[in-house]
Amino acid sequence: MPLTAYSRRFAAELDLEQWISRVSGIPIGGVQTDAIDDRLRIEASEDLECPSCAARGAILVSAGVSKRTQRRVRQGTFRFVAPNGGDAHHPLCEFAGVDEAAAMPTALVDFQSPKDWLMRDIRRLVCAGIQIGAFTQADMRSMRLWFLEERKVSQVTLSLDPRVPGVVADIWKWHGMASRVPFAPNHGDIPGFDWQAAARADVISPFRPLTEKMIELRQWPRDELVSAASSLLRRFRGVKTFDAPVLSAKFAQTERLIDFMVSNYATLALSRRRARNKVQIATQPPCFALASLLLYVSDWDLSAAADRFTRLSMVSDVDELAGNLMGLNPFSDVQPVALIKFLQEHALDVEPSFDMTTAVNEQEAKLRAVYRSWVDAGRPERH
Fold first, then answer.
1. What is residue 315's DSSP assignment?
2. What is the DSSP code (8-state) at residue 182?
3. I need a labelling partner for 227 at 20 to 30 A (CA). Which of 136, 204, 318, 374 fits?
4. So where are the chain's domains?
5. DSSP H stretches of helix in the chain
6. What's the pLDDT tens digit per position in 274-304?
7. Are strands 48-49 and 240-242 parallel, antiparallel or unpaired?
8. Binning pLDDT at 50, 70 and 90, where does residue 72 land?
9. Where are the alpha helices (DSSP H) in 154-284?
10. pTM for this entry
């Protein structure tokens, strides 16, 4: 679900707190998003659009509050529902098909852990950028439309079985075993012989061309990447979807700018310490949203974007109602789709039903049977 919506009344992209504050006149610090007045819900349905595809039918989603601790565990956000009750988004909108309360696309933040501090930090920076003219609401709108057009123009069909990325990840964990000495029956006479290792080496051996190609092309099946790829395949298998790797160069620039922001800006550095490591904050969609916008209005020039960030980071008196750009991560699918495309080309022999544990156990039983036959035959010497 989008964390921001475009208000036609205010000609601005706003998060839920900002929009309620503007409509009601309540200072933003006093806005409550866990209990929303029906009058605001009616006005929202008439005023708000999806920031990415301009879908109508806005529904305000209250913030979730823990009954035990009374702390907020889910950000207040927006849903967009068609008159028939279905998904109102354009099929290629990044929010299409994920407008259910239980669904959380990779372009959004999971608020089951309280990270409101990061949202406030980024909102303040976005407001500061609007305030000093580093970018405008029109720029934010333009970037949204640019991304939607990219999704329309650059498409790929995902045909892989959703189970294959997980299978390949299991194979990859043991890829080094493929170079073991081939099994011979007399190996079973070695005290403490590792039957599991021998069986695993045999099972992995046929996949050696695949793992070597993974090394060559630097396709590392990390757990989070495999999970994202499998999720995309469950949603989009057999249909055309965004060929996200076309944005790889812009993705690399954005990562470099985020690293600059998180490493040098005091407020985000504090947030980094709260998050325990830089990766946990640098990979959050709000950081990608702001960094992408700075690069977009700078024609993807890293130095110019860093200069814009420097200027907006120095603003001390910020109007926190100016606007927001949250939840947009044009690059969220770059690496998962790249992995899927690689596997579609190079993992043709991987059976989706393959189970490493089962295969190794079966192979171990075969090796032990070979050894017993060799023993029963009087341990004949190899020639």
1. -
2. P
3. 204
4. 1-112, 164-237+353-376
5. 16-24, 38-47, 116-132, 137-153, 164-173, 195-204, 208-217, 223-236, 248-264, 266-275, 278-282, 285-296, 302-313, 334-346, 356-376
6. 544 556 676 788 889 999 999 999 999 999 9
7. unpaired
8. low
9. 164-173, 195-204, 208-217, 223-236, 248-264, 266-275, 278-282
10. 0.80
